[in-house]
Amino acid sequence: MKLLLHCDIPKLGYFGDIVEVSAGYARNFLLPQRLAVEPTEANIKKIEEERARKTEARRLERSRLVKTSEKVNGAEITISALANDIGHLFGSVGKEDVLAALLEKGFEIQDKHILLPEHIRILGTHEVKLRFADDIVASISLNIVRPEEQAGESQPEQDESDTTDADSAEQD
Question: For residue range 30-58, what is the model confidence (pLDDT) as tens digits?
Fold first, then answer.
């Protein structure tokens, strides 16, 4: 059965496309949900102008996603989390934590773009995939460290001569 789509349906088609679907899928889902109509001349003419507008909006969104993907691809983020002696986290790092770290670094990402099959529960470096569209994929490097390790990286170490001067001043 041929139908004219009223909205974008993943893995089926975009707004204004004429698609071939089974009669049961059309009768039981697409037509009652008003996601599609019969492709008559009147319906096709009515949708053409709006289809051009939506196609342009989809093109602009795609170019924005490509730019974001190129910018974030290969980025390295660090998250601090408490862990036991062998490196197992007390809790886990999930999509929300990765999203917060990416937003903090200035990337415009939504949580639906992050592909994390399960929460991360161990210290170390992990690769996280980001999917912006079916063919726009990026990956980032996620480093999970203990809080004291992250604090040690950000603070410059003191010279030994500074500490010995302070110790000798206290003895006087």
Answer: 999 999 999 999 888 888 888 888 889 98
Dist CA 45 CA 3 (whole Å): 14
Our measurement of the distance from residue 126's CA atom to the centroid of its chain's CA atoms, rounded to an integer in Å, reads: 15
The domains of the chain are located at 2-53, 71-154
**Domain spanning 71-154, CATH architecture:** Roll (3.10)
Q: Mapping DSSP to helix (H, G, I), strand (E, B) and coil, where does residue 81 land?
A: coil
pTM of the model: 0.67
Written as six digits, the tokens of 89 are 């986290």
Which residues are within 8 A (CB) of 93 and not within 5 positions of it... i.e. 6 or more apart?
79, 81, 119, 120, 121, 142, 144
User: In degrees to the nearest 10, what's the CA dihedral of 43, 33, 16, 61?
Assistant: 140
CB 132 within 8 A of CB 138: yes
CATH number of 2-53: 3.40.5.10
Give the whole-angstrom CA distance, residue 116 versus residue 150.
23
Q: Compute the Cα dihedral for 49, 50, 53, 56 and give only its sign.
A: negative
Are residues 69 and 138 in contact, defined by beta-carbon separation less than 8 angstroms?
yes
